């Protein structure tokens, strides 16, 4: 006697090695099932079985699901683009300024929100001091290290090496500023906010 094809799928899950199993969830054999309420940084046993039109059930098939921990940022690096032709992220209500002397400069960022299509984290105002040489202009790339993508009050970092922006997944591109160190007295100026994902950065100075 032929076995009829599956008309639905049953799924249950639990934290690995613990009881009891969750209530059984049902979905189409060709549809995705979104599991809500799972804890990050835990490993789950997930079992799946098919139910046929005549009510026969297949054996449970065990799968293992490892959730990302709290240091895994959820952003446009691991979710789909917001829309076709869209950008990865953009700053809202945010600006960059600096004041300088012949040998140092303080770069300051206002508070702002990074619209990233996920958590849209808000960041507090911040600043960083950099050193320089009189009568020179140096490009600085600014960033936060925020692997969980939660925003808040973070240390502002500055680098003169463009590739440092991609040193780890949790690095947030704050923006770019060309700092002029005056021959004497003081100077000031502004920068350009950056973004994450598929933003268009200001390229390195040739």
Secondary structure blueprint with pairings:
Elements: E1 6-15, E2 25-27, E3 43-52, E4 61-66, E5 90-92, E6 96-100, E7 104-109, E8 112-115, E9 122-123, E10 126-131, E11 136-145, E12 157-159, E13 171-181, E14 187-190, E15 192-193
Antiparallel strand pairs: 1-2, 1-3, 3-4, 5-8, 6-7, 6-14, 7-10, 8-9, 11-12, 11-13, 13-15
- What is the string of helix and strand elements? EEEEEEEEEEEEEEE
- Radius of gyration equals 25 Å
Tally of domains: 2
Question: Helix/strand/pairing class, anyone?
Answer: mainly beta
- Parts with pLDDT < 50 across at least 5 consecutive residues: 75-84, 197-206
* Overall mean confidence score, pLDDT: 81
Q: How do the strands line up in the largest sheet?
A: 2-1-3-4
Gap from first CA to last CA: 75 Å
């Amino acid at each position: 006697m032929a076995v009829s094809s599956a008309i639905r799928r049953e799924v249950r899950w639990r934290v690995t090695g613990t009881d009891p199993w969750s209530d059984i969830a049902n979905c189409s054999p060709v549809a995705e099932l979104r599991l809500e309420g799972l804890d990050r940084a835990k490993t789950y046993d997930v079992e799946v079985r098919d139910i046929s039109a005549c009510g026969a059930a297949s054996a449970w098939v065990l799968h293992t699901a490892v959730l990302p921990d709290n240091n895994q940022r959820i952003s446009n690096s691991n979710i789909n683009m917001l829309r076709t032709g869209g950008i990865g992220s953009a700053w809202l209500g945010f600006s960059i300024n600096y004041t300088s002397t012949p040998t140092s400069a303080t770069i300051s960022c206002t508070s702002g929100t990074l619209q990233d299509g996920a958590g849209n984290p808000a960041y507090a105002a911040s600043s960083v001091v950099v050193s320089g040489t009189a009568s020179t202009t140096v490009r600085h790339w600014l960033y936060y290290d925020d692997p969980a993508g939660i925003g808040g009050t973070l240390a502002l970092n500055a680098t003169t090496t463009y590739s440092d922006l991609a040193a780890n997944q949790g690095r947030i591109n704050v923006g770019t500023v060309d700092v002029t160190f005056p021959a004497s007295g003081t100077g000031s100026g502004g920068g350009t906010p950056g973004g994450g994902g598929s933003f268009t950065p200001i390229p390195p100075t040739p």
